[in-house]
Specification:
With about 325 residues, the chain is mainly alpha-helical. The chain has 2 domains: about 150 residues, Peroxidase, domain 1, CATH 1.10.520; about 110 residues, Peroxidase, domain 2 (Orthogonal Bundle), CATH 1.10.420. The chain contains 15 helices and 4 strands. Bound molecules: protoporphyrin IX containing FE. Protoporphyrin IX containing FE (HEM) binds next to helix 3, helix 9 and strand 3.
């Protein structure tokens, strides 16, 4: 199936982006999927995400990350239940899981047991991408939620990449999921928005007062000591957050430009993309062409949101997105 192309800004709209070639079960995903049973589903999700964005733009970046994780785990479309949240890779790092539950409450009030948590997450991520300055993409719906979850699928199967991963490991995961090397590089440009907790890159700096590794962006880690938060905050962690780059609420190509021009990235895994001959050409390409990056990012995100979806009679529609199995 050919996925409807994402709309760019006015000028780009005249020349639509390359159409996404979606894989797996995406053929059954449709725009306005629940138009009869829940005509305002997309609007309810979009309004909620817009309100979050208006209050604090940076928080919506987390929907994009959650979509990435939800898509990579095999028994997907569960939206991070308790077991998965407790896994080493996800649990500590995924903030804002409650936002999906909040939206689900509104949808259950409007049309009970109709819209899956998986569709809600996908719609929310698409809206977030647009609000952050990316293209507007179709809200494809029709996913059902997984009934099984295993923390082991995150950590043991190594479906979720770790910040210290090599390019070999990243490419292996991409291929396993049916993505090209270019796809994974462009999707790593998701680190154009949002933040990382300093615990995930703290090994790259020597304490908070010491000298950082040469490739850690100094300007981004400066002041970490002052920002350190007490345990038990809403972020549930004592580590302060730092943005990946200087414009964390704008989906732009600064992540790639920083890599090329300053040879710096917050995560070692991102740094590795510059240094490997298989990934480096794409890093340079996206650093040199922001619109190309945005178009390809949107295209890959739509395809990712269609990966291994449960459809038809598989899975279920949950009443709540916070499962506790
Ligand atoms: C090699 C691959 C990747 C690794 C190792 C990785 C790792 C991480 C880590 C460690 C964080 C910080 C989490 C925290 O401290 O709370 C993060 C944040 C983030 N990641 Fe990735 N990631 C990868 C790929 C991706 C991809 C493909 C996307 C999207 C398509 C993505 C989107 C994001 C976003 C938007 C954030 C910011 C979340 C927020 O502000 O709450 N990442 N990632």
């Amino acid at each position: 199936m050919v996925v409807p192309s994402c709309k760019q800004d006015q000028s780009a709209e005249k020349k639509p982006m390359r159409r996404g070639i979606c894989k797996n079960n995406h053929t059954v995903l449709k725009e306005r999927y629940d138009r009869n049973r829940c005509p305002y589903a997309e609007k309810i999700v979009a309004d909620h995400v817009k309100a979050l964005f208006a209050n604090d733009p940076i928080v919506v970046a987390n929907f994009i990350r959650k979509l990435f994780h939800d898509c990579l785990v095999n028994t997907r479309r569960r939206v991070m239940d308790k077991v998965q949240k407790s896994s080493k890779t996800n649990g500590e790092l995924l903030q804002g899981v409650g936002y999906i539950d909040d939206i689900k409450v509104k949808l259950e009030a409007a049309c009970p047991l109709t819209v899956s948590c998986a569709d809600i997450l996908s719609f929310a991520a698409m809206e977030a991408m647009t609000l952050l300055g990316g293209p507007r993409c179709p809200y494809l719906g029709g996913r059902r939620d997984g009934m099984v979850s295993l923390a082991s699928q995150v950590d043991i199967d190594r479906n979720i990449p770790l910040p210290e991963w090599t390019v070999d490991q990243i490419i292996q995961l991409s291929h396993k999921k049916g993505f090209s090397v270019e796809d994974m590089v462009v999707l790593s440009g998701g680190h154009s928005v949002g933040v990382a907790h300093s615990s995930v890159f703290k090994d790259r700096i020597v304490g908070y007062g010491g000298s950082p590794e040469p490739n850690v962006p100094n300007q981004l880690v400066t002041g970490l000591a002052m920002k350190r938060k007490p345990p038990g905050t809403t972020e549930a962690r004592a580590y302060p957050t730092v943005s990946f780059e200087e414009t964390p609420t704008v989906l732009d190509n600064m992540f790639f430009r920083n890599l090329v021009e300053q040879k710096k990235a917050l995560l070692a895994s991102d740094q590795n993309l510059l240094n490997d001959p298989r990934t480096s050409p794409y890093v340079h390409q996206f650093a040199g062409d922001e619109q190309l990056f945005k178009n390809k990012f949107a295209d890959a995100l739509v395809r990712m949101s269609s990966l291994d979806v449960l459809i038809g009679k598989s899975g279920e529609i949950r009443r709540t997105c916070k499962l506790t199995n």
